[in-house]
Amino acid sequence: MKKLSLTMVFAIGILFSQLQAQEAKSDRAEKFETLKAELQLNPEQAEKVKTLLKEQKAKMNGLKEDKQTKKLESKAELKSKKMEQMKARREMREDFHLKMSEILDEEQMEKFESMSEAKKDEMKKHQHMHKHKIEHEHPTHELKAE
To answer: Count of CB atoms within 10 A of residue 85's CB?
Structure first.
């Protein structure tokens, strides 16, 4: 009976994981189609951008894998590694934008930059709201001297 229960839990876990992966893939495809439409990409540009996005995703996933080792490192090592990852992400974004500028015409690139800035602003707003929510839910209590 216990083996059957464990097997069911394991199977449900695998199914859930597959559904999440499928949903993420669908979301990426939808975002690509939006980008394609907004920038009015021709078929050749669309193929190049799609390939570039896949490469960028693979590079970012490589950085995410490094997070798995955090538990094994000291605070100083973590801080150093985090700084390296931030630098690597910045370099990846700069390289990505450079490659996009080689694919897009001037008008498309201006639109892409505008879309990127809007996304960055949206992310900052979300981070600020999330930080505020955490501070509100878990306020720091100062001990008062009696």
So the answer is: 14
Q: From residue 16, how far is each of 29, 30, 52, 70, 102 by CA, in Å?
A: 20, 21, 29, 26, 40
- Residue 18: pLDDT band (50, 70, 90) is low
What is the C-alpha separation between 128 and 135, in angstroms, rounded?
A: 11
Query: Residue 97 and residue 95: Cα distance in Å, rounded?
Result: 5
Asked if 92 contacts 56 with a C-beta cutoff of 8 angstroms, the reply is yes
The pLDDT tens digits of the residues spanning 70-99 come to 555 677 787 888 888 889 889 999 999 999
SS (H, E, C) the chain: CHHHHHHHHHHHHHHHHHHHHHHHHHHHHHHHHHHHHHHCCCHHHHHHHHHHHHHHHHHHHHHHHHHHHHHHCCHHHHHHHHHHHHHHHHHHHHHHHHHHHHHCCHHHHHHHHHHHHHHHHHHHHHHHHHHHHHHHHCCCCCCCCC
